[in-house]
Amino acid sequence: MNVAIIGAGRRNNGIGEYVAKYFHAAGADVPGVLGTTHQSASAAAARLKAYGIQARAFTEFPAMIDACRPDAVVISSPTATHRQYIERCLDAGVHVFCDKPFVPPDDPDVSTFIMDVTARSRAAGVVIGMNSQWPFCLGSYEELCGGVDRERIESFSMRLSPVARGREMIPDSVPHTLSLLRCTLGPGRIDGIAFTGGADSLGISFAYHGECATCSVHVDLVREMTQPRTMAFGFNGCMAGRIIDLESYTIYLTCKGKTLKITDPLELSVRDFIAAAEQVREPLIGCRHILDTSSLLQQIYRAYSSV
Q1: Percent residues over pLDDT 70 in the chain
Q2: Integer Cα distance of 97 and 91 in angstroms
Q3: What Cα–Cα distance (Å) separates residue 270 from each residue in 46, 133, 159, 179, 236?
Q4: For residue 178, what are the domain limits?
Q5: 3-class DSSP string for 165-204
Q6: Residue 23 shares a structural domain with residue 56
Q7: Is residue 80 a part of any domain in this protein?
Q8: Does residue 301 share a domain with residue 161?
């Protein structure tokens, strides 16, 4: 598989560099990266050499497609650019692995756009995936904290530490919460949205009515600027926190004095997308998931905007 990367830089907390690393580790070729300027694209390509990736730098999407002939394109550029690149990838007939959120929640026709993407991709045999990686560690959470009876989930809590401030914390972080809820409780609806705090520390509460159960949800978003940033989640009060050894980038979950080494969920997300593209099937975080969670994200974002 040939995979081209849009946005492989690290400015504004981008993860394109690490996505490229995991595609390469899974056996994919990464022949090109696209940046806004020759300087930024060349710098991204230079950083990828540390992982054994020899990628050419591009500043124009058509030139990258013509030269690299990718089977898939990773979109890790700023959220405001996602829609245009998704459409251009569909025009080019390539699979799409897009960072979350899929499109900005202030886009007036989020659902219509995603439904159109779904129809076009299915007609063309193109696979669409979104990177919202934390559902891939649910198995590790249960290994550490004990099995989760989906029908008896009463509450879910999550702590995330975005770089963004104010309402922009919501699209930066809340997709993780919504993906975990959907993958655990099934598709659902939300109500009772409430907010506490301010620009650098925002609390969000709501009820999630899923196929398996209805549970109360609370998300704490606390701005942090340095790595490793705090992340934790849990069901029914049993919280598991993430620990990262920055020197080796080894990731652990810890809960009640127990610690478990886990595979980076970003790597598992990439592997799932590769398998889906090769089999032309829906990935775990595919179009149905994207539509459901993006609609709920927009609902929360709009609720905050009206406060």
Answers
A1: 98
A2: 15
A3: 22, 9, 24, 16, 29
A4: 134-264+296-305
A5: CHHHHHHHHHHHHHHHHHHHHCCEEEEEEEEEECCCEEEE
A6: yes
A7: yes
A8: yes
- Residues with Cβ < 8 Å from 240, sequence gap 6 or more? 141, 144, 145, 232, 233, 234, 253, 254, 255
pLDDT tens profile 166-196:
999 999 999 999 999 999 999 999 999 999 9
8 A C-beta contact, residue 185 and residue 213:
yes
For every residue of 130-169, DSSP letters joined together read EE--GGGGHHHHHHHH----GGG--EEEEEE--SS-GGGH
26-54 CB burial, b ≥16 within 10 A, e <16? eebbbbbbbbeeeebbbbbbebbeebebe
Tokens 């569909």 belong to 90
Domain shared by 6 and 112, yes or no: yes
| Residue 290 placed within a domain | no
Residue type present at position 150: R
Q: What is the CA angle 235-178-190, rounded to 5?
A: 90
pLDDT at 306: 65
Same domain, yes or no, for 247 and 158? yes
Q: Are residues 190 and 51 in the same domain?
A: no
Asked whether residue 64 falls in the same domain as residue 175, the answer is no
Hey, how many other C-beta atoms are within 10 angstroms of the C-beta on 197? 13
**pLDDT score of 253:** 98
Q: Do 179 and 300 fall into the same domain?
A: yes
Give the separation between CA 7 and CA 117, rounded to whole angstroms.
21
Assess whether pLDDT exceeds 80 at residue 305: no
Q: Quick one: 125 and 139 in the same domain?
A: no
CA distance 305 to 298: 10
Query: Residue 281 burial (CB < 10 Å; 0-12/13-18/19+)?
Result: exposed
Residues 232/240, Cβ–Cβ less than 8 Å: yes
**Spatial distance between the Cα atoms of 223 and 166, rounded to a whole number of angstroms:** 9
